[in-house]
Amino acid sequence: MRAPAEQLPFEDGRFDTVVSTLVLCTVDDQDRALRELRRVLKPGGRLLFIEHVRADAPGPARWQDRVNPVHRVIGCGCNCNRNTLERVQAAGFNVAQIAHDRLHKAPPWVRPLIVGAAQT
């Protein structure tokens, strides 16, 4: 089924688990998409995610900000400079597991990666 992440065609509390793999960088409204993911999860449901994110170090983060306008065009809408972990937590998810890694064969500005599990 094709549907925007910001408007999922499912009833509240439908799923035990939702998986988001390199999605939250491209949605138009990340906060709205996260609210939708939370809405369709059952109480205690899990969000499993793999997302590239804004670099922690100031230098690489500034570089991401500079290249993001061009990267959005060549990367099919991908925003390489989003604070996705912070937004997941702000959406009310309890992040139970998080690992910081890198997309090793990607351009340097999209290498920072998080892999995690969160609950409603």
Distance between the termini: 24 Å
> What is the strand tally?
4
What is the residue-mean pLDDT, rounded to a whole number? 95
N-to-C SSE string, H for helix and E for strand? EHEHHEE
Assign the structural class, choosing from mainly alpha, mainly beta, alpha/beta, alpha+beta, or little secondary structure.
alpha+beta
In DSSP terms (H or I, runs of 4 or more residues), the helix count works out at 3
Low-confidence stretches: none
Protein described:
The protein has helices spanning 30-40, 58-74, 84-90, and strands at residues 15-21, 41-52, 94-102, 112-119. It has 120 residues and is of the alpha+beta class. It has one domain (15-98, 112-119): Rossmann fold (3-Layer(aba) Sandwich), CATH 3.40.50. A four-stranded mixed beta sheet has the order 1-2-4-3. The protein is globular, with a radius of gyration of 14 Å. The mean pLDDT is 95.
What attributes does this structure have?
29% helix; alpha+beta; four-stranded mixed beta sheet; Rossmann fold; 120 residues; 3 helices; single chain
Write the layout of secondary structure elements.
Layout: E1 15-21, H1 30-40, E2 41-52, H2 58-74, H3 84-90, E3 94-102, E4 112-119
In short:
The protein is an alpha+beta fold and 120 residues long. It has helices spanning 30-40, 58-74, 84-90; strands at 15-21, 41-52, 94-102, 112-119.
